[in-house]
Amino acid sequence: MKEVHFVSRRNVEQTIEHEFPDRRCLISISTPPPQQTSPQLDLKTWKHVLCLKFHDIDMKTQAHHVLFSDDQAEQVLQFIKIHEGRDYCIVHCDAGVSRSAAVAKFIAQIYCLKFPEGYANHNRQVFSTLLRIYGECQSGYGNIKPNNLPGLPSEEPLV
Fold first, then answer.
1. Which single residue of 18, 22, 48, 138 could bond 157 by disulfide (Cβ 3.0 to 4.6 Å)?
2. Considering the domain 3-148 in this protein, what is its CATH number?
3. Average pLDDT over residues 4-33
4. For residues 117, 18, 103 and 4, what is the CA-based torsion angle, rounded to 10 degrees?
């Protein structure tokens, strides 16, 4: 993986067919119904997609809110591992500010990629869940074996 970018839903929906669709992958994050429908993705443009649905909140405040889960964190890890040979990973959410930034920041960290310095608007619950699940798996306590984790080889667990 050479680059990771976080963008808005609108940006992704307006993306037109690209010359090299096999060189990139997309993590599509949307709000669960009834608030919003899934993005209208052009499958010629986006062949490699992981779709996730959860609310942009840091803690469950009402019964109908869906938090980013441990299972979704594992899905992200497995998706990134499968697609780590691609040049670009695009992560989008509704505004392209919080949820997508958290996932992109995590990807940037495990691959030592550029991420906007000082950017602090990422969803901390999403980011901390990804770090925790990644660390548990690195230590052999998670559902994914350490050698099946994405990222650069490391001597020390990422915390």
1. 138
2. 3.90.190.10
3. 85
4. -40
In sequence order, what are the residues at sequence separation of 6 or more whose Cβ sits closer than 8 angstroms to the Cβ of residue 69?
A: 54, 129
Band of the pLDDT at 13, cuts 50, 70, 90? confident
> Given strand 3-8, what is the order of strands in its sheet?
3-8, 88-93, 24-30, 49-53
How many helices and strands, by DSSP H and E, does the chain display? Answer: 4, 4
Q: What is residue 14's predicted lDDT score, i.e. its pLDDT?
A: 81
Torsion of CA 104, 69, 54, 128, to 10 degrees: -40
- Three-state SS at 130: helix
Contact between residue 75 and residue 54 where contact means Cβ atoms under 8 Å apart: no
